[in-house]
Design goal:
With 488 residues, the protein is an alpha/beta fold. It has helices at residues 4-17, 73-80, 89-103, 117-125, 135-143, 160-169, 179-189, 233-242, 265-281, 306-319, 334-337, 376-380, 470-474, 483-486; strands at 59-61, 65-68, 71-72, 84-88, 108-110, 129-132, 151-153, 173-176, 199-205, 227-228, 249-254, 285-287, 327-329, 341-355, 360-367, 398-403, 412-419, 428-432, 453-457, 460-465. It is globular, with a radius of gyration of 24 Å. Bound molecules: pyridoxal-5'-phosphate.
Length: 488
């Protein structure tokens, strides 16, 4: 078994060879993935997997086998089955602590990235609040034992039932998103005693463009989220909620400009836009939302850390004249959970098809999961890498397309992937950086079973969400009465 130290230095060499910046270097890192015209081979893909795509406690054991949290990935796959999400508990805890250190009290974990009771408990234990975006997320967090005052309720169309649940339990904050929601709150609350008024923030759309996929850019003018700053709707919402007759306690502003953001200046521009409203209203909280990016592939540059992000946000607030007394918070999801997990699949078929237009071939490596456990490639064209957990530091000259098992041509998990030359049917194949928006977006499409979620740490593993069974697929069906019973 090689010690963590030696595998770390091995991987540092690999990262250097690929031109990946050391973690301390934030800007000017490279995009090394050049494409050949035929089968879309990226040169960096020939190299072994970059260490920084793996969870913190990953190490190489027993020759070249991947272990996380002191447990061999192959052991989990053998005993629990595949596909399986394997999360490094220490990695999750460490990112939660880092977020809490960086922003202080009030920073929330965006549970939409990944939620089960075990995750909610970790975020809560490590001092984060938790943001929920539906009654379902609220329910899971409450059932995990998270105190209601540590929860923040989001949603662009909260139903009356969701608001009633949030108000009944005494939720910590509600982020108000529309004039209709203000009316709904007024109706529900009537005239309540000041002590029991819910604390609310106004979600403001700052009209800021960020460089990310269109479907995850939320702060531009044409968006379903929040109140427009430019049109004056945000100021109007603030006036309504802060008025003498308002049944809520307006404490601050909230914004979220999008996700997978590497360029921190986008937050600076957002804060510049919001500052006049914060200053003139004397509000005491400003939440800048989530959005900090992560590297999904070895050729992506190193993203800023949570601490860098918090520093940039604080500096921008100071420059924009926002008083130090204003509580500045954030809601990272991806930056906490994404790199903490790998998804492990089993290869079931390998098929090479000719590509007449290029005289090349494409090799499809089919695994036993797909778009039902990772929708991001189909939804956002997201790029991932693949590797074999039994040969984690091996070079990967075999150009492959990793396909899922759904009846859907778009069910591709990894385009332009690379594997060791001897990858074969029966091998375990893993995709790193799948801890955020993977399980959270999982479905039963084609009646595939949603995979189990396993947490590893201290040499042990525990199943925190069991895998579904065929019987689960029937659990919501209502037995139909015989047709004759329906006829009067
Ligand atoms: C309001 C809000 N906050 C936080 C987040 C988390 O974003 P990320 O996972 O990119 O940090 C999202 C993501 O959609 C969001 O909509």
């Amino acid at each position: 078994m090689s010690a963590f130290g030696s595998s770390a230095s091995y991987w540092r060499q690999i990262d250097r060879r690929m031109g990946v910046a050391e973690p301390a270097t934030l800007d000017g890192a490279v995009s090394a993935g050049r494409r050949t015209p035929d089968a879309g081979v990226t040169h960096q893909g020939m190299a072994p997997l970059s260490r920084r795509l793996l969870p913190d406690t990953a190490e190489v054991v027993a020759g070249d086998s991947l272990s996380i949290g002191g447990v061999e990935v192959a052991t989990v796959a053998e005993e629990v089955g595949t596909p399986v999400f394997i999360y490094d508990e220490e990695h999750l805890r460490s990112r939660c602590r880092e977020a809490r250190r960086a922003f202080g009290d009030g920073v929330s974990f965006a549970s939409k990235a990944f939620l089960c009771r075990a995750m909610a408990r970790i975020a809560n234990d490590e001092g984060m609040m938790i943001d929920v975006a539906s009654g379902g997320e609220l329910y899971v967090a409450l059932r995990a034992g998270v105190p209601p005052e540590r929860l923040v309720m989001h949603g662009s169309n909260k139903s009356t039932d969701e608001l009633v649940l949030a108000l009944d339990v005494g939720i910590g904050r509600i982020v108000v998103d529309s004039f209709d929601e203000i009316e709904r709150l007024n109706r529900l609350l009537g005239r309540v005693a000041p002590a029991t008024r819910p604390r609310v923030l106004v979600r403001v759309n700052p009209g800021v463009e960020v460089s990310t996929h269109a479907s995850i850019a939320t702060g531009r003018e044409d968006s379903k989220f929040g109140f427009s700053l430019v049109s004056g709707a945000a100021a109007e919402a603030v006036d309504l909620l802060a008025s003498r007759h308002s049944p809520v306690d307006l404490v601050g502003l909230h914004t979220h400009i999008g996700s997978q953001i590497f360029d921190l200046s986008a937050f600076g521009r957002t804060i510049d836009s919001l500052a006049p409203l914060v200053v003139t209203t004397g509000l005491t909280e400003l939440c800048v939302g989530g959005g900090l990016g992560v590297a999904y592939t070895g050729d992506q540059r190193e993203p800023p850390s949570l601490a860098d992000w918090a520093t940039a946000v604080r500096d921008a607030c100071r420059v924009a004249g926002i008083p130090d007394s204003v509580r500045i918070t954030a809601e990272p999801g991806r930056a906490v959970a994404a790199t903490s997990a790998v998804t492990c699949y089993r290869i079931g078929a390998i098929k090479s098809v000719p590509l007449p237009s290029t005289d090349g071939v494409r090799t499809y490596v089919s695994v036993d999961g797909g778009m039902s456990d990772n929708l991001r490639p189909a939804l956002y064209d997201s790029r991932y890498e693949a590797f074999l957990p039994r040969a984690v530091t091996a070079s990967r000259p075999f150009a492959v397309t990793v396909a899922g098992k759904h009846c859907e041509s778009g069910d591709i998990l990894v385009r332009n992937g690379h594997l060791p030359q001897d990858a074969a049917v029966g091998d375990l194949l893993a995709t790193p950086v799948t801890g955020a928006y993977g399980y959270a977006m999982a479905s039963n499409y084609n009646k595939l079973l949603r995979p189990p979620v396993v947490f590893v740490g201290d040499g042990r593993y525990r199943v925190v969400t069991r895998g579904e069974t065929y019987e689960d697929l029937l659990s919501l069906d209502v037995d139909e009465p015989a047709l004759s019973h329906c006829v009067p």
